[in-house]
Design goal:
Distance between the termini: 17 Å
Shape: globular
Largest sheet: 8 strands, mixed
Helix content: 40-55%
Strand content: 5-15%
Number of domains: 1
Order of helices and strands: EHHHHHEHHEEEHHHEHEHHEH
């Protein structure tokens, strides 16, 4: 029996758009938390914060908690984020601890911890939202007529202990992710073979099964959880979507990215950006044009006739 449902359409968004509108870089925040604006380190990013804080990461994150909420003062920045919220993604995954998308949904420059708390929801029926390593916990955001589920996959600022930073916490997250898939086994494939619906119980389901559009996220080699998931997606035998990585044209010509791009291609990632027509070195223009390209792909997913039967059912926690 042919399955005609569309694959989940998933956005994985990093800090790139915020940076193009003069948002804080992680490098800047590490310098501030170190107490030394001249702080430099050649270590991978997850280890830099350990050296910068003298291995006092949790306390320093607690001190900087409100600083990490993020702000959206620029009207065009807010409008760009709002355009994302109207695109109809099944799931939005973000590596950011900050709340720029939530801010865009309420059309404000700043947001309170109370307001963020009211958005919290979970797919765990009858259970509280996870305090950390949030595989089943998201923020429910309604903007105009579109409902969005925004998953802060590395934690969020309102709960400093949820933030995944430092190799210890990254490895804990990978361990939790592996246990999740060990528990699932080959259920995706079995469910599809019976032409049944796969309900999205976690952002992990969406990443493996869906078409994933990566925007404003550099896929640094230190992001071991997401590299692990790329390999898991390659190995998945069930019907699944592709990963589309949006890279500015001028970054394709930067040799320091060659190895990383080659590694992405080895993981069946589709590299997009060379043909995005935008002004040279203008990241704002690149992100606007990329969002237009993604919108077209989301509205008409490629190979929809071969897609998996897994549109989102909110609140259902079972793989049936």
């Amino acid at each position: 029996m042919e399955n005609n449902c569309k694959r989940p359409q998933v956005l994985l968004i990093g800090n790139g758009i915020n940076r193009s509108y003069n948002g804080d870089s992680w490098e800047r925040l590490i310098k501030e938390m170190s107490g030394n604006l001249d702080f430099k380190s050649s270590l991978p990013m997850p280890q830099q914060i350990i050296v910068a804080t003298g291995n006092d990461v949790n306390e320093r994150l607690k001190q900087y908690k409100s600083r990490l909420f993020g702000e959206v003062h620029d009207k065009k920045h807010r409008e760009l984020l709002q355009s994302i919220l109207t695109m109809g993604f099944d799931e939005i995954l973000t590596t950011n601890y900050s709340y720029e998308l939530e801010l865009a949904s309420v059309d404000c420059a700043k947001i309170s911890e109370y307001a963020i708390g009211k958005m919290k929801d979970t797919t765990l029926k009858g259970k509280r939202a996870e305090a950390k390593y949030m595989l089943h916990t998201y923020n429910a955001i309604d903007y105009l007529s579109t409902h969005n589920r925004v998953w802060h996959i590395h934690g969020e600022a309102r709960n400093h202990s949820s933030m995944v930073i430092g190799h210890y916490y990254y490895c804990n997250l990978v361990s939790k992710i592996k246990r999740y898939f060990d528990g699932i086994g080959n259920k995706y494939e079995i469910i599809q073979s019976h032409n049944k619906k796969i309900n999205i119980n976690s952002w992990l389901d969406a990443f493996i099964l869906g078409d994933v559009y990566v925007l404003g996220f550099g896929f640094d080699p230190s992001e071991i959880d997401l590299w692990w998931l790329l390999e898991r997606k390659v190995l998945e035998k069930a019907n699944k979507g592709k990963v589309y990585y949006y890279c500015p044209p001028w970054e394709f010509m930067n040799s320091k990215n060659d190895d990383k791009h080659a590694l992405l291609v080895c993981h069946d990632v589709v590299m997009i950006g060379r043909d995005i027509v935008c002004r040279q070195n203008d990241y704002k223009d690149f992100y606007r044009k990329s969002i237009e390209d993604i919108k077209m792909r989301v509205e008409i997913p490629k190979d929809a006739e071969k897609s998996v039967d897994c549109r989102v059912t909110t609140g259902d926690t079972k793989l049936e």
